[in-house]
Fold this sequence. Notes:
13 strands, 22% strand, Ntn_hydrolases_N
Amino acid sequence: MHSISTIAAFNQITKNKTKGITRSIYQRLTSKIASVSMEPILIVHGGAGNITDARCPGKLNGMKQALRAGIKHLIPTEGLSAGSALDAVEAAVCIMECDENFNAGYGACLNLEEKVELEASIMEGGELKAGCVTLLHDIMHPISVARCVMQNTKHTFLGGVAAQKFALEHGFEQLPEDSLITEDARLALKEFKECQAKGLDTTFARTELDANQKSNEQGPSTVGAVAIDRNGNIAAATSTGGITGKVSGRIGDTPLLGCGTYADNLLGGVSTTGHGETIMRFNLAQKIMGKIRYEKKTAQVATEEACKEMTGRLIGTGGAITIDPQGQLGIYWTSQRMGWAYVKSGEIFYGIDHGKQLKEPL
Length: 362
């Protein structure tokens, strides 16, 4: 566990904006944090919104699969991994991008032109490096493209034709057109267009639908992961297909740092999910980080307060998962449901309904 005095020292240094923080001071603080071995933790979310009973089992299973894939990269294993938070969050998100139970990669929602446009972001908390992509099409793993941007360019964010070209030039496969589209995504778009034709409000249109769904509440299902490794390094990653019926070219909160994703070894890591326009306007990830830093709130209190404040002010719902530098977790959402799961000490803790937590061996 990191000492409070270490974090307090960082806060004191950065209070004086005229002096700022030098690289050498930052390195001394982070080396002090890294000198204390942390218990590795990986947490994921499978989206927040109106998740029907029929879709719950698939989401819970998918998140557990993601944890089992990601933890292999987080726990030091001889000959396999030294233990990397960044590797862990990418691996976890990749699993969910392949799973049609989530609105990311295969299973992503459709825009008005009946096409999938994908976006993602990934960030590491040591040097605050990040990679963001948007408006990709027919690429299974936008989260890996985002990491490639982070590690192979001097830029942070690529979008549209340039992002697609970059992905192909760096060995990512462009799948056959429309191969990421599922029947559920088509159903959701069909309902969206029917509501639009009737003059109904589609601001919070659903991003997923199944044959048994009756409610008219929104149902975003972005995926995300946050991890802390044994050295105290924090990483966060988020991936999505956006919202059903969006105009072609619309960009949401997921690829925006401070909205959909953020990581800082001295403050924590966050991945958010929910109504993108609401999260962007509220700057949800940074609001959570601010409560941890300036108000000295725990990860749980910061996450819960920020989500409630966002919905209270802007109506739109959402949720977030958070890990602070001490390895404390924050999990909260203002929508009907949010799929979440984390692995700690060889056990998986998970849930999808408010007030209900399940547990099973890893």
